[in-house]
Amino acid sequence: MAEITLCESQVLEPQGIKVGRRLGSAVFDAKKDDGTSVVLKAGSNLPLRNVLVNNEHAVFKSIPPHANICRPFDYFMANSISGEIPVLAFPYIDGKGLDEAVLLYSCEDDGDKKFFKALSGGLAGLKHIHDNGFLHLDIKPQNIMVDNSGAGILIDLGGSRRMNGDCPSDLANMSYGTLDYFPPELVALKNLSARSDVYQFGATILSCLCGKTFYPLSGIGGCILPDYHRPFDLNDVCPSLKEYPDLKVFLQRARSKNPEQRPSVDDLSALVNEHAKYFSARPDHARLLPKNTYVRGQLEDYDEDVNI
After folding, report:
1. CA distances for 51 relative to 56, 201, 217, 219, angstroms
2. Which end of the chain lies in a sparser environment, N or C, as judged by fewer CB atoms within 10 Å?
3. What are the respective helix, strand and coil percentages of the chain, to the nearest 5?
4. Helices 98-105 & 194-210 angle (0-180, nearest 10)
5. What is the pLDDT of residues 119-147, one digit of tens each?
6. Contact assessment for residue 170 and residue 51, using Cβ atoms and an 8 Å cutoff
7. How buried is 302 (Cβ within 10 angstroms: 0-12 exposed, 13-18 middle, 19+ buried)?
8. Which pLDDT score is estimated for 22?
9. Burial class for 64, CB neighbours closer than 10 Å (0-12, 13-18, 19+)
10. Could you give the CA distance from residue 300 to residue 308 in angstroms, rounded to a whole number?
11. Are 123 and 269 in contact (CB under 8 A)?
C-alpha cells in the first residue's frame, strides 16, 4: 500500500513516487522511482472526490485503450491523514490543455489548422467512449490535452455515465461537471445522451474562439447556472463566424435546449473533418481564431468542476 500524506492540499512523498506540484483539484504531477513522469488523481476527505476517482476507475474497466484517451495505468488505495483514499495514476502528457494551446494558435498563421487537428483528436476519443456505451459529460478546453505532436487527447472521465444515464458508482444522483458547459439535461439528470456531449463539444469550440460559451451564468434559485433563456449573440461574441456559416449554424443547433434538436455526433464529426481539411488545403483562408488578440484570462468559464 502506498503511503501518501495529505496536508493543506499537498501530497507528500508516497512510497515509490515523489510528488511535485499541484496541477488542479486533487491532481498532482509526480515521478516514479525510475524517473518516469506520471500524474496522480487523488481522493480526499471530501466524499465527492473519492466518488469521482472510483467512478473513473470503474468506467475504464469497460473502455478499451485508445490513442486519444488518457488512460490510468494503476489504481491503489493510499493512507492519508483523513484515512484511506483512492488514487489513479496516469501517464504524463507532454503538452498543454486546449485552452492554453489556442493562445499560441492565435499568434500563428496556421493556427486554425492546428486547432482543428486538436479537435479531431479529442473527437476521436469521444467517439470511442460512445462506441463503448459511455458519455463523457465534462468536455471543455481544459479536458482536451494537446501533446507535442498537436494531437488532441481526451482526459478526465470522472463524471462519465453510461448511455442510459446510469453510473457505475455513487455519482448517480449528483449533477457533476463545469457550469459553463452544462446542458440543461445534465442539471435535471434526465434524457442524457450522446447529444449532451455534442452540446459540450460545441461550447468548447466557441469558448476557444471567443472566451464565451453558449449562455451567461446567472444566479437562479440560489444556484449559479447557465441562463438558458439568454443565449449569447454569436455575431457579437465571435464575428469571425460570419465567414463560416456552416460552423455558425452548427453551434446554434448545438446549444438547443432540446437534445433532439441538436446535431448528432456524426454531424459533429463531419463538421470537424471538413474544416480540418479546408484549413489544411487553404493557407489563405479567412481567419477563424482571432489573430494576436487572444489574451490569457479571456476564458470566462469556471475552471473548477462542481456538483449540484
Report:
1. 9, 24, 26, 27
2. N
3. 35, 25, 40
4. 40
5. 999 999 999 999 999 999 999 999 999 99
6. yes
7. middle
8. 52
9. exposed
10. 20
11. yes
Could you report the per-residue pLDDT of 71-129, keeping only the tens digit for each? 999 998 887 776 788 999 999 999 999 999 999 999 999 999 999 999 999 999 999 99
Residue type, 139: I
Is residue 141 within 8 Å of residue 99, measured between CB atoms?
yes
- Cell of residue 32, nine digits: 516514479
| Angle at the Cα of 259 from the Cα atoms of 230 and 60, rounded to 5 degrees | 115
The confidence band for 27, taking pLDDT boundaries of 50, 70 and 90, is: confident
Q: How many residues are present in the chain?
A: 308
Going by their DSSP bridges, the two strands 223-226 and 217-220 should be labelled as antiparallel
Cα 98 to Cα 198: distance, rounded to the nearest angstrom? 17
Which domains are assigned to the chain? 2-91 (3.30.200.20), 95-307 (1.10.510.10)
Tell me which residue of 80, 88, 77, 8 sits closest to 40, measured CA to CA.
Answer: 88
